[in-house]
Design brief:
mainly alpha, about 0% strand, elongated
């Protein structure tokens, strides 16, 4: 599988998760487990973003990148790197926040039917 294939499979898996969590039939334990896996997902994505930024930077350094519009390539490359770094920072924060929520869920008791 190519990197694009893996990204598509991950996106499809999230879509399926969204469909699976629509129902109210999930248990608190399942919610806890889903949160744990989502935390892991968010904590792993920054590496993929950093690697994508590195590929762009490497291609720029080798002189193989051009733009299909006017403007300096370096500004586009710097913009991509900045945007991906910001996305990675947000994902790290999301992973931490989801972990905090998971910890709280671990103390919840569902006394319903």
């Amino acid at each position: 599988m190519t990197p694009s294939d893996h990204a598509q499979a991950a996106a499809d898996a999230v879509r399926e998760l969204n469909h699976a969590t629509v129902a109210d039939s999930a248990t608190i334990g399942e919610v806890h487990d889903v949160l744990g896996e989502l935390r892991t997902l968010c904590s792993r994505l920054p590496q993929a973003l950093d690697q994508a930024a590195r590929i762009i930077s490497d291609r720029h350094a080798s002189g193989t990148l051009t733009l299909d519009e006017e403007g300096p390539v370096i500004e586009a490359v710097q913009g991509v790197r900045s945007d991906l770094r910001l996305a990675a920072d947000h994902l790290n924060l999301a992973a931490w926040s989801i972990g905090e929520a998971q910890q709280t869920v671990s103390h919840l008791i569902d006394e319903g039917p």
